[in-house]
Amino acid sequence: MIDHVSIQVQDIDASVAFYQTVLEPLGYKLFFATDRTAAFGVKYPEFWLNARPDLPKAHAQTGAHVCLRATSHEAVSAFHQHALTMGGIDDGEPGPRQALMTTYFGAFIRDLDGNRVEAVCFPKKETAS
Q: Domain locations in the chain?
């Protein structure tokens, strides 16, 4: 099980403002922020930003991304819309997708530093009556 992830950002203050808005529909809150790092999560710090002002932005072809769980299609869509409003870039509109082992509803964005972040929710399984 993965405990937490961190991404690099050039401007910690701008990224904290971006993610406070973008992660709100997913139930994430800011646990703390300094001039070098910030931590977001639902129950504990699980998504970290680390200031790396001298490093270049993420290259679009790295193949890396972070996927965060959402509780509903509406939360995924709000995540996506908030990101675009805050200066992020659309990297996959909200919608149903077919993965190798299941279907899901997800959306992809690129943050202010080019990091690829996805929000996803999974359909509830029908139970037999």
A: 5-51+65-121
Question: 49: part of which helix (H) or strand (E)?
Answer: strand 47-51
Specify the residue for token string 């819309």: 81
For residues 76 and 107, the answer to whether their CB atoms sit within 8 Å is: yes
Alpha helices by DSSP H, listed for 24-126, are: 73-85
Tell whether the model's pLDDT for residue 125 goes beyond 90. no
pLDDT in tens, 61-72: 888 899 999 999
Could you tell me the pTM of the whole model?
Answer: 0.92
CATH pick for 5-51+65-121 out of 3.10.520.10, 3.10.180.10, 3.30.40.10, 2.10.109.10: 3.10.180.10
Instruction: Give exposure, 32-58, as e/b (b: 16+ Cβ within 10 Å).
Output: ebeeebbbbbeeebbbbbebeeeeeeb
Cα 64 to Cα 21, 58, 67: the distances in Å are: 22, 9, 10
State how far the Cα of 88 lies from the Cα of 114, in Å rounded to an integer: 8
